[in-house]
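Lab meeting, item 3. Inverse folding demo.
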């Protein structure tokens, strides 16, 4: 099947070739554009693009889409989500309004353990149905590749149930590229309360081998932060996971300067995420490493935390990725459109830098650069968003509650 999109006012993110990895520092400001354009798709991939004065004949295309002077941008890649969960936690939202902190809510039985209780009491089919609804929402809002973590089971059975649900999501919506991350070390499971060391051993000796045997898992994550897991425990879990071929993508420095960045870098993790608190030492640690600093402004917004210093990191020459952190506690939204606005309004990224951070760089943070996700180039997946007619690219994060998506194509569908 071949599709032609015609009358595009501008294709933003149109690159001559697929970038080999993340854009860093000043490179992030560059978003190549092609004005007055057409784009053709063959099967799942972009075939060619060019300017309207050289548009191909419409014969030979089974489908012709008139963009009516809307723009085309790459679909978002959301490199950090927890969308497999059961129920909701708006009760904790009320607690937060009343003045309780994230740590106080967790200490009262809320937080991650609350979601684990609900998930373990929910059937796999029900959990799948609830999660599929979220995945569909993400797709409708322009997300074309997504990372999904476990970490609300915290028992061997619960974690494996989550992995099976992620597998079913991947099969139900093959047009979205899904990557799975094992996050058994999200919190200490209830059965191990007060016995954190034993829980870490359980993860290493029992959970990791079972996760590897189950298959379909790409990465391993640890919540390396104050009150959760230590850098030493994180290192042990990452080392054990590497024997099963699982690469690290860790939570670090959300609640304190945790040492997590240094562990992530030393273990060759693909990303270290959150980073609401980082010092010059972390900036230096990232430099020259393959670990991509990933920030989650939706969590900063929702919990009233500081925003990660993305501007400082980019000015220091680092790549920065931006993801939604969609989860029931700290970021109950997976809308990358809002992440875009937060990046500009709160982190002082330009609209171009922010879009690169949510496409090319999050694709790199998922190991998807070689496949071309996040880029518009011949051979890349035809995962893109057609906008309504808009004055400019900057109008998108600026007019931040205005509907602007006309149509989303994922892998040509
Ligand atoms: O990424 N920080 C740890 N985990 C999640 C929150 C999980 C929850 O509250 O359920 C996060 O923010
Ligand atoms: Fe998270």
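The presenter then showed the designed sequence:
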């Amino acid at each position: 099947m071949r599709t032609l999109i015609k009358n595009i006012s501008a294709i933003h993110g149109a690159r001559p070739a697929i970038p080999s990895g993340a854009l860093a520092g000043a490179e992030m400001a560059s978003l190549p554009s092609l004005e007055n354009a057409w784009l053709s798709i063959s099967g799942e991939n972009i075939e060619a693009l060019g300017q309207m004065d050289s548009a191909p004949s419409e014969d030979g295309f089974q489908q012709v889409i008139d963009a009516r002077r809307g723009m085309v941008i790459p679909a978002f890649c959301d490199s950090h989500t927890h969308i497999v969960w059961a129920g909701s936690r708006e009760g904790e939202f009320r607690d937060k309004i009343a003045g309780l902190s994230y740590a106080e809510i967790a200490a009262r039985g809320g937080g991650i353990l609350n979601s684990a209780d609900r998930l373990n009491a929910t059937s796999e089919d029900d959990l799948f149905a609830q999660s599929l609804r979220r995945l569909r929402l993400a797709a409708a809002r322009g997300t074309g590749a997504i990372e999904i973590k476990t970490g609300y089971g915290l028992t061997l059975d619960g974690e494996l149930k989550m992995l099976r649900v992620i597998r079913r999501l991947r099969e139900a919506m093959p047009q979205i590229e899904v990557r799975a991350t094992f996050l058994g070390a999200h919190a200490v499971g209830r059965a191990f309360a007060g016995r954190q060391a034993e829980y870490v051993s359980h993860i290493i000796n029992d959970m990791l081998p079972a996760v590897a045997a189950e298959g379909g898992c790409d990465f391993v994550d640890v919540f390396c932060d104050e009150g959760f897991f230590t850098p030493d425990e994180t290192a042990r879990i990452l080392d054990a996971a590497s024997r099963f071929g699982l690469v690290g993508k860790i939570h670090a420095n959300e609640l304190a300067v945790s040492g997590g960045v240094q562990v992530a870098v030393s273990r060759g993790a693909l990303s270290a995420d959150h980073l609401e608190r980082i010092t010059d030492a972390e900036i230096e640690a990232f430099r020259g490493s393959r670990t991509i600093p990933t920030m989650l402004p939706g969590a900063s917004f929702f919990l009233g935390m500081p925003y990660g210093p993305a501007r400082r990191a980019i000015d220091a020459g680092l790549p920065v990725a931006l993801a939604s952190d969609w989860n029931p506690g700290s970021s109950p939204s997976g809308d990358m459109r809002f992440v875009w606005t937060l990046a500009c309004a709160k982190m002082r990224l330009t609209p171009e830098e922010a879009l690169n951070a949510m496409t090319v760089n999050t694709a790199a943070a998922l190991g998807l650069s070689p496949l071309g996700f996040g880029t518009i180039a011949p051979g890349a997946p035809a995962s893109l968003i057609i906008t309504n007619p808009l004055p400019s690219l900057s109008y998108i994060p600026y007019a931040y509650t205005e509907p602007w998506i006309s149509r989303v194509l994922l892998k040509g569908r």
